[in-house]
Write a structure and sequence with these properties.
alpha/beta, three-stranded antiparallel sheet, 28 helices
Length: 668
Amino acid sequence: MTRPPVRTGSAGAAGAVHFSLLGPLTARRDGRELPLGPRKQRLVLATLLARPNTPVPVDVLTDAVWPDDPPRTARKNLQVYISAARALLGPAGDGGADRLVHGCGGYHLRIAEGELDTLRFGALARAGRAAAGRGDVAGAARLLREALDLWEGPPLHDLRDSAGVAEEADRLEARCLTVYEDWAEAEIELGRAAVAVDGLRDLVERHPLRERLRAAWMTSLHQSGRQAEALAVYDDYRQLMARELGLEPSPAMAALYRSMLGRGREARRPAVSRRTPAPVALPAGTGAFTGRREELRGLLDVLGGGEERVVVVSGPGGAGKSALAVRAAHLLADPFPDGRVHVRVRREDGTARSRAEVLAELGRWCGIAEARTEIPATAAGAEVPATAAGVEVPGALAVLAEAWQEWQARHRALVVLDDVPDEASVRGLLPRSGKCAVLVTARGQLPGLAPVHRIALPAPADGEALELLGKLIGAGRLRTDPAAALRIVRACGGLPLAVEVSGMRLAVLRHLPLAEYADRLDDPSAALDELVAGDVSVRHRIASGWRDLAEPDRWVLGRLAGLADDGCFTLDRATVALGCGERAAIRAVESLIDAGAVTSPAGEVTAHAALYEVPRLLCLFAREQTAAGEPEMAATGAQGTAGDREASGRQGAAGARTGAPAVALSPG
């Protein structure tokens, strides 16, 4: 961090020497820098100036100059350096007395406040803190800033290879950091946080474990409207503390973080006129939320920047889509001052809610008068076309749909539509104009929605999955058998829901060795049975997604799941397994990609070169269904690979997954 040059011209009498330790060791007379001699002489002078007006023992000076093995002539050489320092320093004051005298305690350097920057720094810092104690925050900020302006860089950085000087320099730097923290907090209290942001960032990079600096940086970013960056500072610090020290941030730091999650830019702001609080209807954030840093940052950038009105986050069931969306919504208070709401588009049993039900809930949340209009009983259980689709909606629902669009056009709010089954469920709910944004989560990719910004949520990396497991069972237990812990998260396919359920079970079964539980999950016939914790079942979640698939897609998935133990396959293998031509196999695989049941490479690659994958737990479930001879799958598979299956696909798609393309498995 760079500092303005030291202001030396105003202190002391003309012709006096002014010394600086707050940066490289320098001496100036009348603004002109003086030569300080060879390195050892400079070390003696630096040690004396670091302890002004205090006796410095000869042994301390000797150790500063010759830390390892002083020569026999060390004392004589030291006297030479002292004599040179006396000549440089000159007499003290008007009486002509020596500045540097020797006594029983060692060498005593007498120097005034205006002649040494560290003394001036200390005086200004004390005056600034006294002003803060009197409630004069503006005066405190001015005095503390004046003290900081004396700094030209790390103290004595040109002599830090001497252990004694380095120790004094570290002490001076710690004092500077404390004063900088005092100044930054004063500026934040005055509502001028932006002036401190860059300097705090630089200091945190050099002192990453200094918590007060981190807290000031977080607060300054938050008050400057950079909430996402402020929360990222805390996440980075928490991970650093866990990795380096095995500790959590202090309760005060955690409380600061929590205070920023659901609030706007309110940290020590100047008084402003109050407005009615924006309506917020979000689930509580999960304490086990881990990782997804890039995806979260992407969401915050896209939605916070106001460039996109609709964002779709897609991924298989249990991938953490809802947790990510809720976390982002909590962090986006500032860009959406008119409120944030979370609405589930499915019921607890996994069946889809009607658009009328969802629209009525949104109407109640935003307070539009039409929300209180009674919706006909038949509308709650049936799909009703939306006015946005160009079809008039009769009666009260038409009025409510139009009122919702008008409300979105006039406000800036964030709507989270969670677990959307298909495009038709949300088309009438998306904003046609204005600055409202909608964040959609779905298992499938909802290809029929456009234009939208898309974020695909893959399985997290091993490190993030292990971090999640460690949060649930404790980092200490994780360290007892890291190899077994890695086997557990890999047996879960990295799926956050499965890892979380594993952690919940292990947190209760404290006696169960991690290796034994890993063995259970490695067994394909037992893995899904093990992934149950109370009323939370991975099998139940996967079964809900299975029911979403059209009958032909289930049959295809069952065939593909049997290809390899790891669920990976190529187009050639899929063609053989499905008994169809290449084009039909491509259509079948891409239908499953659209539905979120098969993952594909992130980058562009030809169909022949691509390696596709059925996630491990879905693969196990599909094999179970195949082995059980699911009636729908067997019937579909028995129809052959030509036109009969194409007709069946159309029928199944209409009844099972609205809008899903029918796949005709016919020779290509």
